[in-house]
Design brief:
17 helices; FAD/NAD(P)-binding domain; globular; Rossmann fold; alpha/beta; binds NADP nicotinamide-adenine-dinucleotide phosphate
Length: about 450
């Protein structure tokens, strides 16, 4: 007998925006539906807690919507449960009609250049997780005694990293930046931050408000070479054909900066366009980054590609952050498309292999693990709703797998394995503890960054 919507048991893996928006779409279709939202951390919210920059609190206020979703009947949060370690995908599929994967893309892309593994070379994603207090990265170390730093890539993550490195500590102290990061940044000796973009200003992946913020930082001057803003024919044609106004607005901001007189501010942010790193140099640690100058040409598909020339130069940097995008990770028991770094799917239905059209009954994806690491938080709402639409059609068509009655309940299984599961009420306790600690220091919250400490508070 096929299952009806109100008897469906759903597990969602990952409590970031995609997970919450998927839960919301299901709750709208079937109020009271049984949803277990599982996360590997004792705390919810994924990149809203661990990725969004601390000095962008408005973006974080989306958690109020997530709180409302969590308060609906039938909803449970199962925090501190590592899928793949504490419980397998097969064990979940034996207990839930639907397994909806929203675990995002938390790995980083590498540049594939010599010297990339030298000490002093880091993924920007690691730095972001560190300053946001993600327990997995709380012990990371970044050598902020270096005078010059390079960030490779010019997307919004690069903007965040550049801003956090450059912003006065007095400003950062008003945010929920992790205490360990605040202390390290207060002692920072970084003076020059190089932002390295392999293509030109028209192709810059960052959005204008984020770019503009760099030019508004106290004690920082932004340096742009006006020659970098002279558009090559391919970029001019690309810009003219675009509906998106963002590149034109970015160009306006950059032109205004290029025309600014030098101020001799204590910190400099130097933008380098048409430049790709080809090597990180140094013996025991990073001492420099060799850049090749690129020329731009049309790629024949309406886009513009960077072609290396013979011209090279070296930046004397001691710290490098590659900010060239996140990447999904394979999860045991789920097909994975290594090339794209996503779970292969058709409209959110997981298929048995990349390129296949054969869905695996009851298995779905939403968010970055479905479509790759692009878009803003709101993009996940549409993405998750699209997946849930397919899921609901499958329920209506009687295409859901059956689950056996005699299987050990998930709570018992986890308890037998000694997994300390945190509930929504536990999170609320942690949330209050963090806010109380923050208030004592005049900050919105002071994040707890050790899992042991979180569990101690929860147990108390
Ligand atoms: P992104 O927007 O995809 O930017 C990646 C950057 O890396 C691009 O400039 C790209 O250049 C460059 N790149 C890629 N491979 C490279 C290579 N081998 N060598 C040199 N450069 C390379 O990724 P992201 O910054 O990680 O951001 C991820 C998503 O999160 C984006 O959608 C972003 O908008 C979003 N986000 C939003 C906010 C916000 O709204 N405030 C904050 C953070 C993140 P090409 O263009 O030449 O490929």
């Amino acid at each position: 007998m096929s299952i009806t919507l109100n008897r469906l048991r759903v597990a969602i893996v990952g409590s970031g925006p995609a997970g919450f928006y998927a839960a919301e779409a299901l709750q709208k279709a079937a109020p009271g539906i049984a949803i277990d939202l599982i996360d590997r951390l004792p705390t919810p919210f994924g990149l809203v807690r661990g990725g969004v920059a601390p000095d962008h609190p408005k973006i974080k206020s989306v958690t109020r919507i997530f709180d409302r979703i969590a308060s609906q009947p039938g909803f449970r949060f199962l925090g501190h449960v590592r899928v793949g370690q504490d419980v397998t995908v097969d064990e979940l599929r034996a207990r839930y009609h639907v397994l909806l994967l929203c675990h995002g893309a938390d790995a980083d892309r590498s540049l594939g250049i010599p010297g990339e593994t030298l000490p002093g070379s880091h993924a920007a994603t690691e730095f972001v997780a560190w300053y946001n207090g993600n327990p997995d990265h709380a012990a990371a170390h970044f050598d902020l005694t270096q005078r010059e730093v390079a960030i490779v890539g010019i997307g919004n993550v690069a903007m965040d990293v550049a801003r956090i490195l450059a912003k006065p500590t007095s400003e950062l102290a008003k945010t929920d930046l992790a205490d360990h990061a605040l202390q390290a940044l207060a002692a920072s000796q970084v003076q020059v931050i190089h932002l390295v973009a392999r293509r030109g200003p028209v192709q810059a992946a960052c959005t204008t408000p984020e770019l503009r913020e760099l030019g508004e930082l106290e004690g920082v001057e932004v340096i742009v070479d006006p020659r970098d803003l002279e558009l090559d024919p391919a970029s001019a044609a690309e810009l003219a054909a675009m509906d998106d106004r963002n590149p034109a607005k970015n160009l306006e901001v950059l032109r205004e900066w290029a025309a600014r007189p030098r101020t001799g501010a204590p910190r400099q942010m130097v933008l380098h366009f048409n430049a790709s790193p080809v090597a990180l140099t140094g013996t025991d640690r990073v001492e420099g980054m060799t850049l090749v100058h690129n020329r731009l040409e049309g790629d024949g598909r309406g886009g513009v590609r960077a072609v290396p020339t013979d011209e090279t130069r070296t930046l004397p940097v001691g710290l490098v952050f590659r900010s060239v995008g996140y990447k999904g990770r394979a999860l045991a028991g789920v097909p994975f498309d290594e090339r794209k770094g996503v779970v292969p799917n058709v409209g959110g239905r997981v298929v048995d292999a990349p390129g296949s059209e054969t869905p695996i009954p009851g298995l779905y994806v939403a968010g970055w693990i479905k479509r790759g690491p692009q878009g803003i938080i709101g993009t996940n709402k549409l993405c998750a709703t699209d997946t849930v639409t397919q899921l609901l059609a499958d329920v209506a068509a009687g295409a859901m797998p059956t689950i056996a009655d005699e299987v050990l309940p998930i709570d018992t299984l986890l308890a037998e394995r000694g997994v300390v599961v945190t509930s929504w009420a536990d999170w609320q306790r942690l949330d209050q503890a963090e806010q109380a600690r923050g208030a004592a220091a005049g900050r919105p919250r002071a994040k707890i960054t050790a899992i042991d400490e979180m569990l101690t508070i929860v147990r108390a």
